[in-house]
Amino acid sequence: MNADRLSLKLQALADPTRRAMLANLRRGQATVNELAKPFQISLPAISRHIKVLEKSGLITRSRSAQQRPCKLSPTALKEVDEWLDAYRSQWEERLDRLDTYLQTVQE
Question: How many domains does the chain have?
Answer without folding.
Answer: 1
